[in-house]
């Protein structure tokens, strides 16, 4: 009985489990929002180090960080966050029209509403010609950085694909080129491991219209 009381006092003085995960998630959300760290795993490791928590069992899941990030932006983002999100969604609509031949889909933070001043507009484009997008950009004189990105489509199904990044004014565009059949099967989201949510032009326009009417 005395041992039980000692254990309860210890837990009260040094929060464990859910409490520590919550603290790390909140700090990770601050790091992501204020410092522009886009990697959730890196953000939670930095948050745990800052809080002096070294037990990996206390690290929150990515979905917990995503939830904390939405709460952080709701509490501290204010009108600036709302205006920046609208700006990014407007830029996404313009880009989707420009790249219409590639049947673009919006993904990521701009779609989910967690975007901030550090976020890029992320689009999935589709073409069976692996050089199609590079040729399109070259023909229009758009300078870009080409990178390789690994996506997961299932537990044992990964693929390396090309992605292209460039700045359009004060907005960074991030375009991932996928084969046409990838329109039917979205890659798995790094946050929850489920098929990534994607939106076509009409759906993004509706999001922008709804946010403007509030």
Q: What does this 3D model show about the protein?
A:
There is one protein chain. The chain folds into two domains: 2-76, no CATH class; 79-212, 2-Layer Sandwich (Beta Polymerase, domain 2). It has a five-stranded mixed β-sheet. Helices cover 48% and strands 18% of the residues. The radius of gyration is 20 Å and the shape is globular. The protein is of the alpha+beta class. The protein has helices at 2-13, 18-35, 40-51, 62-76, 78-98, 109-112, 132-139, 201-212, and strands at residues 105-107, 121-126, 145-154, 157-168, 171-178. It comes from Tahibacter soli.
Topology:
Elements: H1 2-13, H2 18-35, H3 40-51, H4 62-76, H5 78-98, E1 105-107, H6 109-112, E2 121-126, H7 132-139, E3 145-154, E4 157-168, E5 171-178, H8 201-212
Parallel strand pairs: 2-5
Antiparallel strand pairs: 1-2, 3-4, 4-5
Helix pairs in contact: 2-3, 2-4, 5-8
């Amino acid at each position: 009985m005395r041992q039980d009381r000692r254990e309860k006092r210890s837990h009260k003085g040094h929060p464990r489990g859910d409490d520590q995960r919550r603290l790390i998630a909140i700090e990770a959300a601050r790091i992501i929002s204020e410092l522009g760290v886009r990697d959730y795993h890196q953000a939670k490791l930095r948050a745990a180090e800052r809080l002096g928590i070294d037990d990996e069992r206390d690290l929150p899941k990515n979905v917990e960080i995503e939830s904390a990030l939405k709460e952080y932006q709701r509490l501290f983002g204010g009108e600036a966050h709302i205006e920046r999100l609208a700006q990014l969604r407007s830029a996404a609509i313009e880009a989707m029209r420009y790249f219409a031949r590639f049947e673009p889909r919006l993904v990521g933070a701009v779609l989910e509403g967690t975007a901030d001043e550090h976020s890029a507009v992320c689009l999935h484009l589709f073409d069976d010609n692996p050089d199609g997008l590079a040729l399109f950009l070259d023909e229009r004189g758009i300078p870009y950085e080409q990178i390789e990105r690994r996506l997961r489509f299932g537990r044992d199904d990964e693929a390396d694909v090309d992605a292209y990044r460039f700045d359009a004014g004060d907005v960074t565009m991030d375009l991932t080129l996928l084969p046409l059949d990838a329109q039917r099967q979205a890659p798995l989201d790094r946050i929850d491991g489920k098929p990534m949510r994607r939106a076509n032009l009409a759906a993004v326009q509706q999001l922008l219209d709804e946010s403007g009417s509030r």
